[in-house]
Amino acid sequence: MNILLVRAKPTFMDMIVGIPIGLVYIAPMAERHGHHVEILDLALEVDPHPVLLAKLRERKWDLAGLSCMTPEFEGAEIAARQIKEFDSSIPIMFGGQHPTIVPDQVASQEFCDFVCIGEGEETFEEFLDVWSAGADLGQVRGLAYRDNGQVRRTDPRHAIADVDGIPIPAYQLLDMDRYAEADSARYTPKYKRATQIFTSRGCPWHCTYCHDLFGKKFRARSPENVLKEIRLLYDTYRIQEFMIEDDIFNFDMDRAKKICDLIIESGMTIALQFGNGIRLERLDEELVRKLAAAGTHHVSIAIESASPRIQSLSRKNLKLHMVPDVVRWTRLYKINTLGFFMIGFPGETVEEINMTIRFACETELDEALFSIVIPYAGTEIRSQVIRMGMYDPGAEVDNLRGVIRIETPDFDFKTLKRLQRKAYMMFFLTRFRFLKMLPKLFSLKSSKRYLRAIERNFLPEALVGPNTRAN
Fold first, then answer.
1. Any idea what the Cα angle at residue 31 is, between residues 27 and 37, rounded to 5°?
2. Nearest CA to 27 among 55, 1, 56, 59?
3. C-alpha torsion sign, points 183, 189, 191, 197
4. Of 9, 144, 181, 234, which has the fewest Cβ atoms less than 10 A away?
5. Where in 205-331 does DSSP place strands (E)?
6. Could you give the CA distance from residue 239 to residue 112 in angstroms, rounded to a whole number?
7. How many CB atoms lie within 10 A of CB 321?
8. Residue 14 has what DSSP assignment?
């Protein structure tokens, strides 16, 4: 079969392009069964419509696949409708985080034929075998589809236990040079040729605002398997920087240290950054030292709130007293450290928000990101907000496409935007951080990112546009 995997053009103005990592993971499952697979990344295109149309005309496609997160669903829907408009006989499968959260709603849409729920590798492989043989799709675990006009969902599929057994992603299906020219998917890279990788899946914590695509059991690739992928990217595609996308890279501290040791011993000249996946309590000075020696120049640490009450309510349960030590270690080993903070939890008071702002300012963090809490579909916090009626009046609660804003007796969205601006002003004016930021504002590598952040957080919403995210 001829299979076209598509990453749609994001409709949110501040979405930053990285490789479509979900698609390169499922592509080998089809290739090893003899199917012809191509990946089309419309996120790289200024005008995606004619590019998709040209690709559809190249051959007779037997299946199209689209993967998306919640903020990307609108763009995926646009692409799916275009495919159906070109040839309504092309079956379309949706997968990824958002279709996994609302599989029945996605499967019921006229532009979707199948939904791959959860991890896609094994489900996609089995689906292709069963579907191409004309057998009963009901035997494929982890699938949703329409059957005689009704959405049918099969039994759930267990998480992949042996993550070392998952094939190396099909990087050969991407034009890796184009990603070197695109904006970085995370923090400004040290090296131009940078890409994302996963070294583990799953997170055992139960934060109410998080999605649960990979489950709550930590499943780690071996250090040797991780090094094999890094070596392939380094030797074949000249990749020199790796953005670790794990839910929690350092849950197993010994494994994390071993990965660092293997990188150091390899002699490769590379850099690492962690825009995600570093848990504060799973750091010690030895691991920070090894991370630095392996090339780490940036880590992001999710602190979220300085209020012990909100830490408990959100089930983050961070040991806040460890923040000064961890930041001291990262400064000692010259690792830039960004703190993630969230404001606007349901039930949070303005004083607790100000407590978080003061806490951030008092740290030695290099940078901070203050996000307004968005209760995305599929999260526990969304259920709480809807149950308590703590959202903007008149909003339509639509799990498929809608994003609602939290509003409580203590604050509305305008109040949160004001507090967010206050947080940024106070943070960067404290400890002369704004002086350290000036070179980044005038750097070709990083200026676009920071100017977008200024636009997003300080311009009136009417000037920025309705699709801008709140964080």
1. 60
2. 1
3. negative
4. 181
5. 219-220, 241-244, 271-278, 296-304
6. 36
7. 7
8. T
Beta strands in 61-149 (DSSP E): 63-67, 92-95, 114-116, 143-147
For 230, residues 6+ apart whose C-beta sits below 8 A from its C-beta are 197, 242, 263, 266, 268, 270
pLDDT at residue 437 in the model: 74
Domain made up of 2-153: CATH architecture: 3-Layer(aba) Sandwich (3.40)
- Decide if domain 183-464 falls under CATH 3.80.30.20: yes
Residues of the chain with confidence (pLDDT) below 70:
12-16, 185, 440-471
Which strands sit side by side in the sheet containing 241-244, from one edge to the other?
Answer: 194-197, 241-244, 271-278, 296-304, 336-343, 367-372
- Nearest-10 crossing angle of helices 413-429, 447-458: 140
Q: Given this model, what pLDDT does residue 424 score?
A: 95
Cβ-contact 441, 447 below 8 angstroms? yes
List the structure tokens of 409.
Answer: 């007796």
What does the domain layout of the chain look like in residue ranges? 2-153, 183-464
Interatomic CA distance for residues 272 and 194, integer angstroms: 9
Give pLDDT, residue 70: 86
Query: CA 66, CA 94: separation in Å to the nearest integer?
Result: 5
Q: For residue 279, what is the DSSP state?
A: -
Give yes or no for a contact between 419 and 428, defined as CB atoms under 8 angstroms apart: no
Start-to-end CA distance of the chain, whole Å, equals 42
| CA 372 distance to own-chain centroid | 17
